[in-house]
Amino acid sequence: MRVFVTGATGFIGQAVIHAGHQVLGLTRSDKGANSLAALGAESHQGSLDDLDSLKRGASASDGVVHLAFNDDFSDYEGNCRADRLAIETMGAALAGSNRPFMITSGTLMLPWGRIVTENDAPDLTAVAGAARGPSKLSALSFVSQGVRASVVRLPPTSHGDGDRGFIPLLITTAREKGVSAYIGDGLNRWPATHRLDTARVFQLALDKASAGSTFHAVAEEGVSIKDIAEIIGKQLNVPVVSKTKEEAQQHFGWLAFALMADNPTSSAQTREQLGWNPVHASLISDLTEGTYFKK
Questions:
Q1: Distance CA 8, CA 13 (A)
Q2: Alpha-carbon 199 to chain mean position
C-alpha cells in the first residue's frame, strides 16, 4: 500500500515509515526530502498550509495517515482550525474511494479523572477538547462519503530515542531549575507508549480499521507523574519536589496544564480489534535504560 503521510519526517512519522508500507511523505524542504529518501520513502513537496499539495498527495495514494500538527501553543486555536482545513481537503480528495484515512488526536482531550476508552468523546468543555476535538468530527464525517476514516489517539508521551515531546521538556526543566518536580501529590497519571509500538497501530489500522473506528495507541494505561519525576531526579541527581498548582505555572510554564492531567486510558478495544500487542520498553524502563540522559 502506498500511503501519503503528513509529518513523515517527525518522531512518529519516521517510525511509521519503518513499519512496513510504502510511504509518500509530505515535506516542505530539500532537507526533508533527503531525510525521507534516506529512510526509504518518497517525498511530496508541500505543507499543511498548501491545501493543493495535500489534495494531490492524498489523490496519488492508496491511503492517508495525517500525523502533522503545528504545536506552536501560542496560537493553539488557530492551528486547530488549520488542522481541520487540512483534514477536510484530504478527506474530499478520498471521497468515494473507500481508501483509509487516519487522523491523529490525543488522549489528553478526553475527560480527566477516570479511565477512558475508545468510546469516549473529547471533552468539549475543556480548552484542548473544544479547539481540536472537532477535527475528529470532520474526519469521521467523510465515512458517509465513502472514505474509510478512523482516528488514532496518542498518549501525552510516545517515547523512545529521538523524543522531542513532553519528557525531554521535563528533563530540561529539571536541569535548569535544579529540581525534578511534580504537582500536588503527583499521583495523577499519563498513559504512555513506545513510538515503535505506536507506529504498529497505524500499520495495522491501515489494513484492518473499519470506517468510523477510534483507536488508542496506549501501551501503559497510566504512569504517575510522581514516578516520572522521581526517575528524572535520580538520573540527574537532583532533589524531587512537589509544587502547588499556583507554583506550577511559574515552574513549568505552559506544560503545567498537561502535568495536572489525570488521564488513565484503556486500549483494550484497540488490542482486540487490531491484534495489537505492544512489545517495546515501558516509559520508566526507557528513562532508565534509553538515551534520554546521554550527552
A1: 4
A2: 10
